[in-house]
Amino acid sequence: MKAVVVHGPDDVRIDDVPDPTPGRGEVVVAMEWGGICGSDLAYWRHGASGTAVLEQPLVLGHEVSGRVARVGPGVTGVEIGAPVTIHPAEPEGPLPDRLAGRTNLHPRVRYFGSAALRPHTDGGFSEFRAVRADQLRPLPEGVSTRQGALAEPLGVALHAVDRAGDVSGRAVLVNGAGPIGALIVAAAKFRGAATVIAADVAGPALRIAERLGADEVRHLASGEGLPEDVELVFEASGAPGALGPVLRATARGGTVVQVGNLPGEPAPAALGDLVTREITWLGSYRFVDEITDAVAALRAGLDVDPLVTHTFDLDRAAEALAVAADRTSGSGKVLLRLDRDGRR
Description:
Low-confidence stretches: none
Number of strands: 20
Shape: globular
Order of helices and strands: EEEHEEEEEEEEEHHEHEHEEHEHEHEHE
Cofactor: Zn(2+)
Helix content: 10-25%
Domain Alcohol dehydrogenase-like C-terminal: 179-295
Distance between the termini: 18 Å
CATH topology of the largest domain: Quinone Oxidoreductase, Chain A, domain 1
CATH architecture of the largest domain: Alpha-Beta Complex
Protein name: L-idonate 5-dehydrogenase
Keywords: Metal-binding, Oxidoreductase, Zinc
Number of helices: 9
Structural class: alpha/beta
Largest sheet: 7 strands, mixed
Domain Alcohol dehydrogenase-like N-terminal: 23-141
CATH superfamily of the largest domain: Medium-chain alcohol dehydrogenases, catalytic domain
Mean pLDDT: 96
């Protein structure tokens, strides 16, 4: 089968790799769609994503969907041809008692398309992928596999919104309207936020945020500043330089949920308002099982299709990565068509 494999910085290839065979408790999924994420871009551009450094070739991709193609021994209740998305996390070992229920914080997790552990964990940008049956999330009638590929990043957004508590009736600011920020806009509105303001330096990103439900947008590159005294803020840019303005925009006693990945090395940031405004600053990392909530939200009619701006076939993965990485391309979520026989 074909797979999108990163071998090092600026070195991504379409490799022929063996077709997988399902082991006990596993199924093989015929992959149909994959969404390109920031970590995929990091491995391709830098050979690393955060502290995870590429040491061997790695199949990219953790935002994926497809249909069950084969069922391994010991698997029951899974039908051939069933449309599914996949929870990409596979924790290893016990979870500390103090983290009960917070499996996203497990100290050792194998995640699709991650170089964090040795050997690395291949992702799903391939024609087939063997996966544990309990990682499958069935897609209900009315939710396509194309939409199913968005369930993983929507799960990230829902987890971030839920970290803030009940957002119904509240005013919300989302700083950074890339794919995750735009999905936070959609998730906050879905959870009942009264007003959502999206801010970004890129006009195309703000137009996507508007289509996903933003009531107001602030184009920072054109001189528009952040609003003042917003009760609840989601920082989704991951830019250290944005932290000062974001804290200043947060109302006294308000809450900031940090979703954008901050650098792993020292970086200047103005944090004084964190203290003087008594701001609650929360981190948000991946998700627990909000991918299941995401599927339910899609079934309930949450429309995230405006996020998808480009689609490419698997053999054009290098071009797809370049478009996703180029802020001038106007790209939101870039999808890869992964299936062999053209089912969409």
